[in-house]
Specification:
By secondary structure, this protein is α/β, with parallel strands linked by helices. It has 3 domains: 4-166 and 243-290, no CATH class; 182-235, no CATH class; 296-458, Rossmann fold (3-Layer(aba) Sandwich). Helices cover 31% and strands 21% of the residues. It has 12 helices and 19 strands. The protein has a 6-stranded mixed β-sheet. The longest helix is centred in the middle third of the chain and has 18 residues, at 256-273. The radius of gyration is 28 Å and the shape is elongated.
Length: 463
């Protein structure tokens, strides 16, 4: 799967850039205009996107469709394969564009994390499409009320016996649990992963040559019902075809915070122009866009710059203003001392530690860093240099006491210029701290309270 940089290089080399005919361009425009007329809110969001014809050379030709990505920090792009536009009616294209906009508003392209791609694709499409009896996308024929969606409706729907208003993460977890059980999306019976499936093959006839039907073993087929459609997903008890190309999501090059802000701006503009036309099922997703996210990494660096400073005097560098012997210069390396207290109790997982040591690496380039490990008691104190994360062993894994390490620093006269504490927050807090301190808590807001001193931020743990 190419990154944005690689995909851009493909365009430059002519490998990805596609020629679009006047008919194809007009059909896409008509579908967007129809959207503006029938569903004006979606139409205005579509106006805020950039539409790019692409050969999508990273996909097999049969799977080249349409996909979205957020790039350059300010551009929501929809890549489409011109023959795919040809294959759809304007009404079907209407539904596909709705589908893409729903993915964008829900920020699916930058929320996958380390999840299983197949499971996340299904969960995201379920959230977007809704239930077959209460769909969220599609062109409604005024005369007959017939709902027109691509693939003759054989798409991924939320099962009727599942909750209909959950998040994509919720659906993903449910799919994962079902997948471990190996259930078939068609018949619900156990499906170990291999089964008989129908296929075409060459065979002998009376004249010696001819085509014939045959059977063979295939991955993903169900031995009970024989379902083995290579174009359909069959995952965690849910089956159906995916409308669009989700591989473009991996080409997004912005953080979740940046993407949320960009999408929020586009959504706000559409909402302002279409009062009363915002889809009811998207109100919660739009509200989530408006919730502020504390960018704990940026806040951490800003706080360090404020309390630690970013320079120190040193005789190892020449003074640039007064170039005389004996005049100290300025260094921006190890400007001050920072002590990082790591909660090594049993409730802190490896994910939290991995993310935090990644930040310690950055801190160590601008400050002298010491590591203090503590669970319910002292577990070690040592200096940290860049790369030390490879050899540091976390000790403890017992109970939690985050009052103790503060007292230890005070008693041993090792209070640094700034103290950073990583913990899950399930602990008591010191009541008499008057030195700069940042507390990074690994559980969401509202779960536990932070300390009465310093600054508290929440760390979002990558899954």
């Amino acid at each position: 799967m190419p990154t944005v940089k690689e995909a851009t290089k493909m365009v430059v080399l002519g490998q990805s850039k596609a020629k679009v005919s006047a008919e194809q361009s007009e059909k896409l425009m008509k579908a967007r205009c129809r959207l503006m007329t029938r569903e004006p809110w979606y139409g205005h969001v579509a106006m805020g996107m950039t539409w790019i014809p692409s050969n999508m050379p990273w996909m097999e030709e049969a799977n080249r469709t349409m996909g979205v990505r957020i790039v350059n920090g300010h551009d929501i792009q929809c890549l489409y394969y011109p023959p795919f536009v040809d294959s759809l009616t304007i009404k079907e294209l209407f539904a596909v564009i709705q589908h893409e906009i729903e993915h964008i508003v829900r920020c699916h392209c930058i929320r996958s994390g380390h999840r299983n791609p197949e499971g996340w694709n299904i969960a995201a499409d379920m959230t977007v499409n809704g239930k077959k009896t209460s769909p969220r996308i599609g062109y409604q024929e005024p005369a007959t009320n017939e709902l027109i969606v691509p693939l003759k409706g054989n798409i991924v729907w939320i099962p009727e016996d599942w909750a209909g208003d959950e998040t994509s993460e919720w659906y993903y977890e449910k799919l994962q649990k079902n997948q471990k059980g190996g259930t078939c999306g068609q018949c619900g019976r156990p499906a170990p992963g291999k089964g008989k499936g129908k296929g075409k093959g060459k065979g002998k006839s009376e004249d010696g040559k001819g085509e014939g039907e045959g059977e063979g073993e295939g991955e993903g087929g169900c031995p009970s019902c024989g379902q083995s459609d290579g174009d359909s997903y069959n995952y965690g008890g849910v089956s159906g075809k995916v409308i669009d190309d989700h591989s473009t999501w991996n080409q997004s090059d912005v953080s979740e915070d940046e993407a949320r802000q960009l999408v929020k701006d586009v959504v706000d503009q559409a909402t302002e122009k279409c009062q009363g036309h915002v889809p009811a099922h998207l109100e919660q997703a739009i509200a989530e866009l408006a919730k502020p996210i504390v960018r704990w990494r940026e806040l951490l660096r800003h706080y360090l710059g404020k309390h630690v400073g970013n320079h120190r005097k040193t005789y190892s560098r020449r003074n640039r203003r007064r170039r005389k012997f004996g005049m100290a210069g300025i260094s921006h390396h190890a400007a001050a001392t920072v002590t990082v207290i790591i909660d090594t109790s049993g409730s802190i997982g490896n994910r939290e530690l991995e993310q935090f040591f990644a930040e310690i690496e950055q801190i160590s380039s601008r400050a002298k860093v010491n590591i203090l490990q503590w669970d319910a008691a002292f577990q070690g104190y040592e200096s940290y240099r860049r790369g030390d994360w490879k050899k540091i062993t976390c000790k403890g894994r017992g109970g939690t006491d985050m009052v103790g390490p503060m007292d230890w620093l005070i008693d041993n006269k090792l209070v640094p210029d700034c103290t950073i504490l990583l913990t899950d927050g399930y602990t008591g807090w010191h009541q008499n701290i008057n030195f700069p301190c940042i507390t990074v808590i690994t559980v969401p807001e509202g779960t536990v309270d932070g300390p009465p001193y310093g600054h508290t931020v929440r760390m979002k743990v990558n899954q």
